[in-house]
Amino acid sequence: MNTIRCDVLVIGAGAAGLMCALTAGQRGRRVQVIDHANKVGKKILMSGGGRCNFTNTGTTAGNFLSANPHFCKSALARYTPADFIEMVERHRIAYHEKELGQLFCDISSKQIVRMLLDECDAAGVQIRTDCGVQDIERGSDGFRVQTAQGLFHCASVVIATGGLSIPSMGASGFGYEVARRFGHEVLPTRAGLVPLTLSGRHQERFAELSGVGLPIEARCNGQRFRNFMLLTHRGVSGPAILQISSFWQPGDDLRLDLLPDRDAEQWLREMKRERGAAELRTVLSEVIPRRLSLRLCEHWLADKPVRQLDEREIKATAALLADFPLVASGTEGYRTAEVTLGGVDTRKVSSSTMESQLVPGLHFIGEVLDVTGWLGGYNFQWAWASGAAAGNAV
């Protein structure tokens, strides 16, 4: 089988891998990219409903979860959202801000993949799909990587294989296996940015409300996110829930403010004063979806005219609306998770070059590392920043 010689072999043709490849290629490095999937950038293509939320203009290190929270600062500072936006604009890709600094393509996420491939092409990068890795060895003269398409001999190997989320698109634990093989610790992984499931009483009471959505504030373990929640036939989803899911684990206390834009107690007193004859379910239906209002009054709240609520009931009703205890039983798992929490321990990886401190020439970038962003373009910005950091070093 043929031997392919190159300076840099990038394993994984996703966001981080392509960014690393084009950056290294622009520096005159001979770069090969391989991926076991049949096409590149699959997660880019599906992201943002096919519009790709490619960055967030408000990105800071505080938008990421990691056992080593300072690790991401260097790369994020050296390759910013403005740097990526400059490339997007140079390729004349129209985009818009949806909310909270989230930037999306006007037309299609395919444009982002095309841009990255065009940049790789211009830099002389070669990309091979359907090219699974069979073995990686490091010798005195570099790495030898045996693949389905031949033996690669290179000075540097970059692991850009992602995490475990969405296995139907080819996600695997390959990057973690490589890390362990070369002496790196891999921190426990779990699904992040993922819908939560309900069971027992909560599931029975909410299952029929599948499709009902409303703005809420979700709170757990000192974190709070205000956004939309969607009730599903298995539990809860929507941006607020996906965000809080990364901070929640089974048994943790999860609270929802169902009236995030109001002081619930003050509002109830106003209703008692101005709409006393109206049923609680009626006035509640004017500020949250009617089906949810009926269900709350059926099982949790007093089902009677507002004027009949005494002081204790007003306080109790307000407390429940502002601090509703949602007992989640689990998550939908990697099947629908947008990201993987945990991963390669960053304490043995250089924060400026993404190079292993144990194995010279071995780099880890993107989601395979223990760096996980919030929902809203942060994980793509980490892919671009970590990819550029390695690409400038290999």
Automatic annotation (TrEMBL):
Its cofactor is FAD. The keyword Magnesium does not apply. Residues 190-339 form the RsdA/BaiN/AoA(So)-like insert domain. Residues 7-392 form the RsdA/BaiN/AoA(So)-like Rossmann fold-like domain. The keyword Nucleotidyltransferase does not apply. Keywords: FAD, Flavoprotein. This is Aminoacetone oxidase family FAD-binding enzyme.
